TrEMBL record:
Domain Carbohydrate kinase PfkB: 56-315
Source taxon at top rank: Bacteria
Name of the protein in its database record: Adenosine kinase
Keyword Kinase: yes
Keyword Nucleotidyltransferase appears in the UniProt entry: no
Keywords: Kinase, Transferase
One of the Pfam families matching this protein, by short name: PfkB
GO MF term set: kinase activity
Length: 332
């Protein structure tokens, strides 16, 4: 019996959320609707100009969002990311644990905890300015291998392939998982990640990965195909199980070369940020609680359909106990 359903590894970022007038973006010369990497000084300038606007804090990062949503469904998770001994770092740890996720880190005194200023305009579009801070220094020494061994799955985000030490931490997590009978789940994270690290992602998928998560754009980028079914089949030749989201149509599942489309839940989205993270959460919950692959994807589709009706990547409803009601009419 495993202590944790999933052991997550990823960037640890505090989201600083503010609702703004679009004129603020014009004033600060910020490109609307995109994520931009900024340094601490630039982010400080923006925050100073937001001093009269109410702000909310959330622990974040792609894989962290997934762990929180798994816990929301009733699963058990541990998460590893890098923060430091500052106000944001202390907040991050408490917020993760309040969300039901065991958060572990070996804090450094130097540097600052990574932050992402999330500016939301009345049209529900989000503009993000990210200062990665100390999150980029996550290294192999930060991975608690004993806790990893107590987990059914390890889940690693592709965003970590932007740094040498984070790459090493990720590959160590994967290799130790394989040695100890822990299944490896890997998300390709973003088409830009795939394009930058395509050959490495292919190698990792072949060598370590049991379960791949991606969206259609990422799948097409990795496979070099133009048809989604061909893309997911290509990735399925690298790993035994692949889940590829397809927006309102649901998600493709490829198991041992067989491709099926699991239908989604039609909703009117107001913010698609975090949809992929939520899908992975629901699917991993299913895989660790005895669901079939298709039923797991169906629950993943439901969790994703709920998150796109919220502003931000955190659900305001509790999913624990809703599975039977939502899935009662689903036939594999």
């Amino acid at each position: 019996m495993k202590k944790y359903d999933v052991f997550g590894v990823g960037n640890a970022l505090v989201d600083i959320i503010a609702f703004i007038d679009p004129k603020f973006l014009e004033k600060q010369k910020i490109s609307k609707g995109v994520m931009t990497l900024v340094d601490e000084t630039r982010q400080g300038e923006i925050l100073a100009d937001l001093h009269d606007i109410k702000k909310e804090l959330r622990s974040g990062g792609s894989a962290a969002n997934t762990m929180i949503a798994i816990a929301n469904s009733g699963g058990t998770c541990a998460y590893t990311g890098k923060v430091t001994h500052d106000t944001y770092g202390e907040f991050y740890k408490k917020d993760m644990e309040d969300a039901g996720v065991f958060f572990e880190t070996k804090p450094d005194k130097a540097g600052h905890t990574g932050t992402c200023v999330v500016l939301t305009t009345p049209d529900a579009e989000r503009t993000m300015l990210t200062s990665l801070g100390i999150s980029t220094s996550l290294g192999p020494e930060d991975i608690d291998l004993e806790r990893l061994k107590l987990s059914a799955y390890v889940y690693v985000e592709g965003y970590l392939w932007d740094g040498d030490s984070t790459k090493k931490a990720s590959e160590l997590s994967m290799s130790e998982a394989k040695k100890n009978g822990v299944k490896v789940a890997f998300t390709y994270s973003d088409p830009f990640c795939v394009n930058r690290s395509r050959e490495e992602f292919i190698r990792l998928t072949k060598e370590y990965v049991d379960v791949v998560f991606c969206n259609t754009e990422e799948g097409l980028a990795l496979s070099g195909k133009t048809d989604p079914k061909e893309a997911v089949a290509f990735i399925g030749s690298l790993a035994g199980l692949v889940f590829m989201t397809a927006g309102k149509d649901g998600a493709y599942v490829c198991e041992n070369g067989k491709v099926t489309l699991v239908p989604g839940f039609p909703v009117k989205p107001i913010d698609t940020t975090g949809a992929g993270d939520a899908f992975a959460a629901g699917t991993l919950y299913g895989l660790t609680h005895g669901y079939s692959n298709a039923k797991s994807a169906r629950w993943g589709n439901y969790v994703a359909s709920r998150i796109v009706q919220e502003v931000g990547p955190r659900l305001t409803i509790h999913l624990l106990g809703r599975q039977d009601e939502i899935l009662k009419d689903f036939k594999d």
